[in-house]
Description:
Blueprint: E1 5-9, H1 14-24, E2 31-35, E3 41-45, E4 53-57, H2 65-79, E5 84-89, H3 108-119, E6 123-127, E7 142-145, H4 148-158, E8 163-167, H5 173-183, E9 186-196, E10 199-206, E11 213-221, H6 225-236, E12 241-249, H7 255-261, E13 266-270, E14 283-286, H8 289-300
Parallel strand pairs: 1-4, 4-5, 5-6, 6-7, 8-9, 8-11, 11-12, 12-13, 13-14
Antiparallel strand pairs: 2-3, 9-10
Helix pairs in contact: 1-8
Amino acid sequence: MNQPVHIFATRENISLAETISQCYGMPLGKLSFLDFSDGEYQPCLEESVRGSRVFVIGSTFPPADNLMELLLIIDAAKRASAEKITAVIPYFGLARQDRKDKPRVPIGAKLVANLLTAAGATRVMTMDLHADQIQGFFEIPVDHLFASTIFISYVKSLNLENLTIASPDMGGAKRARSYASYLNAEVVICYKERKKANNVDFMTLIGDVKGRNVILVDDMIDTAGTLTRAADLIMDAGALSVRAMATHPIFSGGAFDRINQSKLQEVIVTDSIPLKNTSISKIKVLSCAPLFGEVMNLVHNRESISTKFIM
């Protein structure tokens, strides 16, 4: 007996969710919201999900309403007797809070994991977590997908000679090495020091980029301060060109202006977070919808998804 499937989405992610559902091969489920004058809202599933597999799509970028809306829809599906509920979270917010790096601070990523499980999620599907160990915060299966399956084919299509992969910081060295191994490229690393978030005090380049075409790789771009400083450093060191490739386009603060004024030739991102500004010609968006649609199909049909883990 084939288990029925229903796909729902939070309101801020409706565009990506519609594309994912098309790639999956079925329309989004009917969902309505009751909005109160004080800002409170109540989602309602407008179709029966009893005994079904339910996918709820929603990236949890700020404001916190995006996370709360996802939790409420999951809770509604659980109370409507859905058999399996998968939270599909292209961008997993609060992932930078993955440990206690100083006294008296929360571990936000662990809190979100607890909330998703308490709401009724039986599985989580996400992409390029800021820290791999976040998977261990869950007592339910986590499908951790990688945007490298999207990016690598695009980089190959550029036919860049003398390619070098760069990491904008020491923490991304493993990611840079992984990309380099698939692209037969060299690796350089930018070493940085900072005293507070989003503010780099010192940066230097480890490795030679003279006469090379360089691609900086990262999991997210927030204010773009580190990225644009690294790009300028690389070009000043004699590189032929520099591009950036990051999964999650947070783009807060003056990110768009910094990118526009930087020496970056191109910034390649996915649509895990909807862009606030689509007028910047340097930004190239590659959709993650086909990846999620395919993996959702594989999960529902109890097939292996290991081929989707390039890195």
